[in-house]
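We modelled the chain as a single entity of 669 amino acids. Its sequence is:
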Amino acid sequence: MAAPGRHVGHCLQKNGQFLLNNIDKLWFRRGFHWTSVLHQQTAEATTESTESIVVPRKKTWSKVAVLEALASTVNRDPTAYQYQFQDDPYLSPWTSSDFTLFSLSQESGRAAAKYFINSNPKFFTTDFAEPHIPCLMPESVSATLEEVSEAALKERLSLRRVTEAVDMFDQLLQSGVTVSMETTHDLLDLISFYCDRDPVEDGAPEQDDAAAVVEEKKKRRGRFQRANELVETSWKENNNAERIFNLLPEQDTRCYSALIRGMVKHGAYSRAFSFYTDLLNNRLTGDVHMFNALISAAPDIQEKYSEKWDLITELLVQMNQQKVQPTLQTFNSVLKALRRCGYLSKTYSLQTLNEMKALGIAPSLASYDHVLAAFYRPGSSDISNVDVLQELMSDIEGTRFSCQDPNDVFFFCSAMRVCLDNKELELGYKVHALTEFGENWRLLGDPYQQSIYYGRFFNLLCMMENVDVVLKWYRKLIPALYYPNAQGLKDLLQALDTDNRLDMLPAIWKDIRSLGHDNKMDLVEELLGLMSRDKHGPEVQRSFADVALQVKALPEGDRGRNMQWSSAALSHVTTLLLRADHTRKHAWEMLQVFKSKNRVPTAELMEELLSWCISSGSSDRAVELVQTSAAFCLSCTPRLAERAVKELSLSEEHRSILSELESAAEQSQ
């Protein structure tokens, strides 16, 4: 610290007035903290004084300040793999199946490591990380307090040991110890949240019990599929939560709130409203979390749309009467419930959104997603869908969002679906620009939802943009952000066909192979059909023929392939091989493939094969070709035989064979 001080003192002695005017900038650049004492010292230093200069204290920076500053200067590289795959180049997925496999493998390994660390913390006592990262250190997963005390109960609550916490609470009551109300609240919250069952520990082996199976089935039903289903409740009447609640000498709002939220979470909607009625009878007021849960359960209590909305309105009125301030989750619960109110959703969703803004509550992406769902119906091209989305985008364009609701991650997929169904390209660009603004891309959801979003965006581009723009986005999105499925690649092929850029097909074929879609016969057949439809220049035909050779060499039954060769696909391959000089010899091999797979060649293909036999002067192959045509009972057999006799120099034996084949074909017709 002495060297900077001597340097500053020397400068002050040389030009004191200049430094007095600019001292703020100098000290800011050197990272020192400005104080009033410094002004006095710098004024004294303008003289020829030999007194030492007192350097102010150095500013203390965050340990990750440099990393944060560097991170702010770097954008995402669309050509690079996702960060999670960059540690091991071997784990660089090129297909959606590989992406899923590698992601699940990493997550499984991470969960197994966490389970081992937490189960054996005695082997992981050294902490040399700088800065200290608590989440990477072993967690305490076993109780250390064995005596019957409230402290032991709190320890089991922190460990989420539901059964052990209930047993400890019962032992405390039996011993005459009064448990504090705060600890009782935490106990009721724990029991209600986990529905009176111990949670599955992270990384622990899964238990194939009935409850786990039911929970998994519920997850697979989808977000809103339960709207028209009778969901079996997992909340049992008079469970430990209700038993402990009834044992309490005094039940307050927090106790009621814990049970009501647990009942709603686990499907006991009617019982939740019954407990709410008891709360009102006891002259208590609810809290905002209780009302949020009841509003979300309201559509499951009533059947008619009007009755559902009346119940929601009544709950909102009671919130106002009890002076409970609504939150973002309150309005999101209302908007989500409105999605199940039929025609009323369009009427009241926008009113609810305006009420949020009037109260100064900024909507989240989930709010806009619920409003959009109120007007949008899958497969509909109603112009009102576009109008509503345009109004929403005008409100949120250029806004940075953070996740405030679990349903925030569904907005971008829903918005892009509206753009795709209505073919709104400009609106689609606005939606995508919002995802790239700030860190909004983090709200695209899990990899499956991201794939859906980018798939819809790419499909919209293929339909509405010119091929140059499509290819630009294609290189930007794939494979860093999007692993296209077979339908996405078909859309790209159609875009190339529309703009007459079929010369790009060989390059797209390389990507089809690398993306693992070369086993999709319908996709391969469409590619071959585009290449064989028209004749092109020699160079393009050679590249097409090389693709045909690669398709011909594809192994069947390998890597789970389901390559069922069709007559059209074999005909396309043979045609492409015939049109290139360096692959015509392979075209004849395809005739044997037709025979082995019992596929019938087309008359046009047989004509082209005969033309090649005539041009090469191969009478033996010409005769074999006519024999093959007769074996398949093709109507073009007489014409082939007649043409071979006229245009080739045949031996008497060959002429006799062709004559017999021609007469037999004419008689059969």
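As a brief sanity check on the tokenised model: The chain is about 60% helix and 0% strand. Residues 96 and 483 are 5 Å apart (CA to CA).
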